[in-house]
Amino acid sequence: MLDLYSIGEMMWLTTLNLTTFPKPGSTTELINVYNMIGNDATITALMASRMGLKVKLCSNSVFDHDGNRLIEILRRNKVGLDLSISKEKHTPINFCLSEQSGRRTWLPPLGDFFPTLPHKRIDANCFYLDFYEESLEARLNVLSRLISQNQKIYLNLSDSSVDRKVRFLQKNNKEKLHIIQTSSQADLTQAKKIAKNIMKLLSPKGVIVTIGEKGSVLCTKKGISIIEINIGRHKKNRRNMGAGASFSAGFISGIASGASLEDSHAIASEHSVDFCLRKDDPLQ
What top-level class would CATH report for the domain 39-90+115-277? Predict the structure, then answer.
């Protein structure tokens, strides 16, 4: 029995750190370039395995030397793989343009890389699914199958078009979810409103809203749990890309150990802060 079956795209995530976003007809300074394994489902699988969970990743096939490097990282960290044949015959790259101010914008890869689930029933205690805008219908089909099997589902809405996704889920009666996670640039007060609204509309066991270095909010039927952090009080923040997926892995690890949702929230927060501060690269 697996502790976690994670579903989503596998690709390289390339961050271009800029002084400012260029305006039309202008240029800007490129400070540095950083490559890391992605996306969220892949990072969540990798970090959960490093925390001692038995994990398998359902993802797209990859190609050539660049793709083999991704496979090597996952296998070295004992992540099992279910790879479906992609229509696209190359290893995808997701570009992130990141300003010094912290603002980001994404240039996702062209093509459809969302994987196909194996036909056989998968035995796992928890299923993680990235619910991105790309290939939304295919993601909904996977979600429908998991719900029909009464599986415990951890759904990542990410931070884009959250209201639209919630309405989409509500319209399609996708209410038998365990945990829903999203992220926001809001403050704690607004994050609480977001969490309560999702809880009201979809009624999962819990709703998590992460708000970067400010902390996170967990909303359950019992009430609201808030964890405030201030990485600026700690040592130098070495990375933040992947922190949300690291948070997911920590939360799932807490659930797997039998911890309550509130205690799992605390475990997830500690794990995410450690991810941001540690000197060695946690994604190798």
Answer: alpha beta
